[in-house]
């Protein structure tokens, strides 16, 4: 089975984790991706944001949420009263999964499957254990299923504070839509308002 666990060092700090993740071969996604995109931010961060997987820009630059979805997310966070620079930002899956639009053409995002998400889980668990955030903001269905299981439905729980045991730790989580879904929405303004409103719940929970 696909599994990152053999690549995750014990007793590592974030820098050592990031270095080890660069060599992860726990699933086949490393073959076509440019590089591992590990989480970014301080181990002291009070809030952790969890997305799906790096996109095209993130894969090129090696940092999460630096592309169009990330720009929108940063704007929404600031508007909700959360400093994006103070957050720890990561993804459920740490390699870009894509298909080619045509031979040699544009790389088109492909959602990770449960096998890849489960395989990558030990990296997310290690990040959670080190950062110990006061609150997790869950961005969309893939992150939700990775953290809370396959019954997770973003439409049902978005904008609420959940309390769940994850990897042996009691966590508080606020789910919301993925910022890419806002970019794809028919009514982008309304979708953006919804994202900001959910993030305000997170800001309130952080106090
Ligand atoms: N979408 C994600 O889920 N994560 C990123 O890092 C960028 C886009």
TrEMBL record:
UniProt cross-references to CDD domains, sorted A to Z: UDG-F4_TTUDGA_SPO1dp_like
Presence of the UniProt keyword Metal-binding in the record: yes
Keyword Iron-sulfur: yes
Lineage top rank: taxon: Bacteria
Coiled-coil stretches noted in the UniProt entry, renumbered to this chain: none
InterPro entries, alphabetized: UDG_Type-4/5, Ura-DNA_glyco_family4, Uracil-DNA_glycosylase-like, Uracil-DNA_glycosylase-like_sf
Gene3D superfamilies: Uracil-DNA glycosylase-like domain
Uracil-DNA glycosylase-like domain sequence ranges: 38-200
Keywords on record: 4Fe-4S, DNA damage, DNA repair, Hydrolase, Iron, Iron-sulfur, Metal-binding
One Pfam family it belongs to: UDG
Recorded family membership: Belongs to the uracil-DNA glycosylase (UDG) superfamily. Type 4 (UDGa) family.
Protein name: Type-4 uracil-DNA glycosylase
Organism per entry: Streptomyces glaucus
